[in-house]
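Apologies for my clumsy wording, but can you show me some protein sequence, whichever is easiest, together with the matching structure tokens, please?
=====
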Amino acid sequence: MENRLLDQFNNVIISQWLSKKIEEPYSPLSPRELFEIAYHSSNSVSMRNIYIKQSSSEDQGGSKAVFYSNSKKFIAIEALENNLTITKYFSEGTTGDKITSEIQPLLKRRKENFAKKDTNMKTQTLKSILVERKLDECANLVLLKGINRKIYFAIGDARESAAVVPIFMEAEGASLVQLALNKWMETAQKLEQEKFFPDNLVPGILKNLTQIKKWLLDLISSFLDK
């Protein structure tokens, strides 16, 4: 099913809306590391990820993500060749001040903190942000009324990605998160695989995914802010 928000972003928002942009050099992190930290630092419960592309290399740019917020603003994160940019798009009468007053200092601080962590902690934190992205992908598929097969695999992907991260699995509440993901996997598996996800199940799964996302955002932030 077409992603109208993404079409609107590519065809209208980029060229016609007001914007504010920040830039951050990669050093001492890799482009992939800074992109993941920027993804998390720009994300929130009220954000919806409508596009994600990952670079094929951890050491090169090329990754991109686009968020849409319920306050009708867009944020684009791009890992370019020499630095990372975060651009906020907003309509007349509103501002994009938060990107410079909150996101930019937060990103700089988290970049410094992350650089000091040991290899194991870095790996686990990045894997936790991967789970965050998988949950976002899941929610977007549901909102786009994707087919049941894709939603089933997206939930399974998020669950399996989480299962190999000790800081995730050992956190208080992790077992409830896994139970909720299992429940929705079983629900999606029982549906006709090539049919669209039923409207009557959308509120329930979105409520659960939002609860899990809030829990995970808090968990990841607690590690990035140490």
In short: Helices lie at 4-16, 31-42, 98-116, 119-143, 148-163, 166-169, 174-190, 202-224. The chain has eight helices and five strands. The CA atoms of residues 3 and 144 lie 7 Å apart. The first strand starts at residue 18 and ends at 25.
